[in-house]
Design a protein that fits this description.
The structure is a single chain. The chain is α+β, with helices and mostly antiparallel strands and 168 residues long. Helix content is 38%, strand content 25%. It has five helices and six strands, in the order ααβββαβββαα. It has a six-stranded antiparallel β-sheet, sandwiched between helices. Helix 1 packs antiparallel against helix 2 and helix 1 packs parallel to helix 4. The protein is globular. The N and C termini lie far apart (36 Å).
Length: 168
């Protein structure tokens, strides 16, 4: 089997379809939410080019707490409504930011980041986590990436026991 990093895709849609299938397989064999999200962040990091951070922030006590990720050490706590992640969590909307330096209130955990995509993971009506992707490139993410990760967020929403995560 080829390493994930070496798989070539003709289109982003093919890559996101492959990611969804692989993610579902990882989720089926994961014994708990931590291993599931750890493998998910590794999958994102392996398949997406030009990333410097890929991972999760989890909702706990009305703030976001750092979850499994791939990349440099990151901010541990993010208040709702603060930065790109806090904005996505509060408003329950995808945040596609072509230039983080133009985003008012951006939190710079890694000064090398120039663009960001944050997608909320909803369980019922509640934000339970956000998927956070950072790139050193400006304009790294587009609408197709946003749609691909919104699909990934729905898979995560339906296949992880979020009650266990919320009660950790």
């Amino acid at each position: 089997m080829k390493p994930l990093e070496s798989i070539e895709f003709q289109t982003k849609k093919q890559m996101y379809d492959f990611m969804a299938v692989r993610l579902k397989a990882y989720l089926e064999e994961a014994p708990d939410w931590c291993s599931a999200l750890g493998n998910a962040s590794a999958l994102f990091n392996a398949l997406l080019k030009d990333l410097n951070w890929a991972g999760f922030y989890l909702m706990k006590d009305h703030e976001l707490i750092l979850g499994p990720f791939q990349g440099k050490p990151a901010c541990v706590r993010i208040a709702l409504g603060k930065g790109v992640c806090g904005t996505a969590a509060l408003h329950k909307t995808t945040q596609l930011v072509p230039d983080v330096h133009a985003f008012e209130g951006h939190i710079a955990c890694d000064s090398a980041s120039n663009s960001e995509l944050v997608v909320p993971v909803l369980f019922g009506e509640n934000t339970v986590a956000v998927i956070d992707l950072d790139s050193p490139l400006l304009n790294r993410f587009d609408e197709e990436d946003a749609l691909g990760f919104e699909k990934i967020a729905k898979i995560l929403s339906g296949q992880i026991d979020w009650q266990t995560v919320l009660n950790r």
